[in-house]
Amino acid sequence: MEATSIMEQSFDVDQLNYEIFSLLENKFLFGSGYSNDFQIGKCNILDKTLLEKVNQMDAGKVRVLSIDGGGSTDGILAAKSLVCLEECLCRKYGNPDARIADFFDAAAGSGVGGVLAALLFTKGKEGRPIYKATEALQFLIKNRRKLVPSSSKGLFCRGVFRSSKVDKIFRRTFGESTLKDTMKPVLIPCYDLSTRAPFLFSRADALETDSYDFKMSEVCAATSADPTAVGSFEMSSLDKQTKIVAVDGGLAMNNPTAAAITHVLNNKQEFPFCDSVEDLLVVSLGNGLANSGCQDFTISPANFVKIGGEGASDMVDEAVSMAFGGVRASNYVRIQANGFNIVPRKSSNSSGIGKKLLEIAEEMLAQKNVESVLFKGKKVAENTNADKLELFAGALIKEHERRKSSVFPTVMFKQSSPRTSSATISTISSC
């Protein structure tokens, strides 16, 4: 009986392998295009029983990166966290040229976090990311005063000159690249004043139609348009059909983790076997909470926007933590810190402020921050933020290595012909 059972299991696996590869060969490798039939609940080619077999096997985990808006460190904490994570990945994987984008399947970023996501996931030369994590950090430090307006001038002057300078920086950095030119699915929010609703720039949508494809330089300008200093940023899609009057993505979703998770779980075209949070590995990067005991806090629109953003980010983290439940410790990590008096933005010593913020970010990575616990409120974490990144880097690499020998496609990234709207599915990605 035992021998018979083993033979039956072997036959099932062989049959599954045959059907999977037949599907891939017919639908993707020989240019038959993509069909919505390959979705749970709409299966003509693969029936539900077959999909259930795939899910029972190890289809792997989808790796998601989420980056908050500016916070009390103007994005420096998240950027420094990414440097720490990329260094861990390079060291553990044994490849000094490894990049953040190699080890994540989707990225979301809001405000300055959206700028970071764009820098790390937009294709540059030879299809590699245009920036390393260290270069993205230096980009923020160098351009911090332009990206985060000073309060030492009038609103009109700040808005006009900041907008012009920032637009030029983004155009020089991203050139003619659009959402289609990102390496992996990317989500970057803004708030659209014309519809009075959040708008999510999405690579998946851009691959479907030019009406949702935007230049990356304008996406970054939109998600970082501070309404208290710059006002709105008007932009249009490549075909001019979609027009947006954008302000800071942090107003809509300062912490885009929930949006990223929802996108992955519902995007069956690119993540066909991802059904629950148990199928995810999520890294969520905060940007520091202002010291609640700070005596020099001033009442201003900018500070109230920051308070609202920090509060919303904390609530999203708690909700996501509860959603992960028993797998929270292994599948979700949140990097956040607080308790420091941040240097005022209006100081004229820009390089000194950047250096100070970098020192603060390094101290924050050494913190053991407070995290949510299912049905138990909150507690101080056992590991420092840096330790958590080190441990999670191992999980990301393990999934990366698993895919090299797996017959099942954990991710199936959509691709399109350059500057066209006809989307197809790429061959299985091992990244």
Give a description of the structure.
The protein is an alpha/beta fold and 431 residues long. The chain has a single domain, classed as Cytosolic phospholipase A2 catalytic domain (3-Layer(aba) Sandwich), CATH 3.40.1090. 44% of the residues lie in helices and 14% in strands. Strands 1, 2, 3, 4, 5, 6, 7 and 9 form an eight-stranded mixed sheet that branches. It has a two-stranded parallel sheet with strand order 8-10. Strands 11-12 form a two-stranded antiparallel ribbon. Helix 3 crosses helix 14, helix 4 runs antiparallel to helix 5 and helix 5 packs across helix 13. 42% of the residues are buried. One of its GO terms (biological process) is lipid catabolic process.
Percentage of residues in DSSP E strands: 5-15%
Q: State the domain count.
A: 1
Radius of gyration: 22 Å
What is the fold-level CATH name, i.e. the topology?
A: Cytosolic phospholipase A2 catalytic domain
Low-confidence stretches: 1-11, 23-46, 150-161, 420-431
Order of helices and strands: HHEHEHHHEEHHEEHHEEHHEEHEEHEE
Mean of residue pLDDT values = 79
CATH architecture: 3-Layer(aba) Sandwich
Name the helicity range: 40-55%
Structural class: alpha/beta
Q: Assign an overall shape.
A: globular
Q: What's the count of strands?
A: 14
Classified in CATH, the superfamily is Cytosolic phospholipase A2 catalytic domain
Quick summary:
The protein is an alpha/beta fold.
Topology (SSEs and partners):
Elements: H1 2-29, H2 48-56, E1 62-67, H3 76-93, E2 106-109, H4 112-121, H5 133-147, H6 155-174, E3 186-192, E4 197-202, H7 203-208, H8 216-223, E5 233-236, E6 243-247, H9 249-253, H10 257-266, E7 280-285, E8 289-290, H11 301-324, H12 328-331, E9 332-335, E10 338-340, H13 350-365, E11 370-372, E12 378-380, H14 385-402, E13 414-416, E14 423-425
Parallel strand pairs: 1-2, 1-7, 2-3, 7-9, 8-10
Antiparallel strand pairs: 3-4, 3-6, 5-6, 11-12, 13-14
Helix pairs in contact: 3-5, 3-13, 3-14, 4-5, 4-8, 5-13, 6-8
